[in-house]
């Protein structure tokens, strides 16, 4: 795809025209674009209109749904396990360190699932709904779109320990982020593109307090001072106050995140690690200068991430209620 967009502006019209065709060698061969063609032919418009309502009411929730997909796929594959509530014999991933008090968007997924159940009873997995809803949220926020292969199944179990072990935290170094993604078969380029998801959404003070209160040298001084207003150094003060991950355009899926990194305006320490004299600096600059390249790479990497499978032998089903096994 040779489309080139101006440095920051990645307009809705351009995004709508940009259906990115991605191939994924080695990805799950069982997934298919035609999986529900006979059993639920109206699926994709139903998901799209349901998530469009969600995003219109609150754009941030589109970002939150996208993050849910990441936190699903990185923990034993894209199997809807992140959506499960605690139950006897089941310890939810929701209470894992990277998720507790932080993940949101569950009600939005419930709302999409309810619409899908009304159209096609007990047919479409929550894992597939999350894959479609994330794709649609990105495009509704102004980003690219891509074809989602379908046929994922929902796990009957969850693993809080795997969530704690597999999800990188806001203090992560570049090396440890690269290692987390490599462990999932994702390249450095995939990782940097996927981190571009932080062009939308918000983070809580407790995830960036250190960075903006003297903990990091590579932070823009004006930016840090502004953030200290809502997020002072003292632990416990303003812990949950929010700041945008992309200060300029937090509700637009553009390449502004990368422009921010190049100005040392990354919100999280882990964000700024992508542009701190290391291996990803050149790519960050490229994405900052070429929105189309970022859009292409992001779409390709989402397809790869979305094809991570649960371990063989994991008990699976199509859940009726995304929060509990049938
Ligand atoms: C590269 C390693 C990553 C780290 C260390 C990381 C860490 C974080 C943290 C700490 C937050 C703020 C959480 C809070 O304060 O409650 C956040 C938010 C977010 N993350 Fe990441 N993340 C990473 C990669 C990704 C990826 C790959 C995606 C999606 C493809 C993603 C999507 C998001 C979104 C959209 C938000 C905002 C959510 C909202 O506003 O509700 N992140 N991330």
Automatic annotation (TrEMBL):
Cystine residue pairs: 40-120, 73-78, 126-322, 205-231
Domain of life the protein comes from: Eukaryota
Active site, per annotation: 71
N-terminal signal peptide: 1-29
Gene Ontology biological-process entries: hydrogen peroxide catabolic process; response to oxidative stress
Gene Ontology molecular-function annotations: heme binding; lactoperoxidase activity; metal ion binding
Transmembrane segments: none
Annotated compartments: Secreted
Broad class of the protein's primary localization: secreted
Positions of heme b binding: 198
Protein name per its UniProtKB record: Peroxidase
Cofactor dependence: Ca(2+); heme b
InterPro entries (UniProt xref): Haem_peroxidase (IPR002016), Haem_peroxidase_sf (IPR010255), Peroxidase_pln (IPR000823), Peroxidases_AS (IPR019794), Peroxidases_heam-ligand_BS (IPR019793), Secretory_peroxidase (IPR033905)
Any one cellular-component term (Gene Ontology): extracellular region
Binding-site positions, Ca(2+) 1: 72, 75, 77, 79, 81, 93
């Amino acid at each position: 795809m040779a489309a080139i967009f101006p440095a920051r502006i990645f307009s809705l019209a351009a995004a709508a025209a940009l259906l990115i065709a991605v191939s994924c060698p080695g990805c799950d061969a069982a997934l298919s674009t035609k999986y529900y063609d006979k059993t639920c032919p109206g699926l994709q418009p139903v998901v799209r209109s349901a998530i469009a309502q969600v995003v219109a009411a609150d754009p941030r929730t589109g970002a939150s749904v996208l993050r849910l997909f990441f936190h699903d796929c990185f923990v034993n594959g894209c199997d809807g396990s992140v959506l499960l509530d605690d139950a006897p014999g089941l310890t939810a991933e929701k209470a894992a360190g990277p998720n507790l008090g932080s993940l949101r968007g569950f009600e939005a997924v419930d709302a999409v699932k309810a619409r899908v159940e009304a159209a096609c009873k007990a047919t479409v997995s929550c894992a597939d709904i999350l894959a479609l809803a994330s794709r649609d949220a990105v495009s509704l926020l102004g980003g690219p779109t891509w074809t989602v292969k379908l046929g994922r199944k929902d796990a009957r179990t969850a693993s809080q320990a795997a969530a704690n072990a597999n999800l990188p935290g806001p203090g992560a170094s570049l090396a440890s982020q690269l290692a987390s993604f490599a462990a999932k078969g994702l390249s450095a380029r995939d990782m940097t593109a996927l981190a571009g998801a932080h062009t939308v959404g918000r983070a809580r003070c407790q995830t960036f307090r250190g960075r903006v209160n003297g903990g990091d040298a590579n932070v823009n001084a004006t930016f840090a001072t502004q953030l200290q207003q809502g997020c002072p150094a003292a632990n416990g003060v303003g812990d949950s106050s929010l700041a945008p991950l992309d200060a300029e355009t937090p509700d637009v899926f553009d390449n502004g995140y990368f422009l921010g990194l190049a100005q040392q305006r990354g919100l999280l320490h882990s964000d700024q690690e992508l542009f701190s004299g290391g291996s990803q600096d050149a790519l960050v600059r490229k994405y900052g200068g070429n929105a189309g390249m970022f859009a292409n790479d992001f779409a390709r990497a989402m397809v790869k991430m979305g094809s991570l499978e649960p371990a063989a032998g994991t008990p699976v089903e199509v859940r009726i209620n995304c929060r509990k096994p049938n």
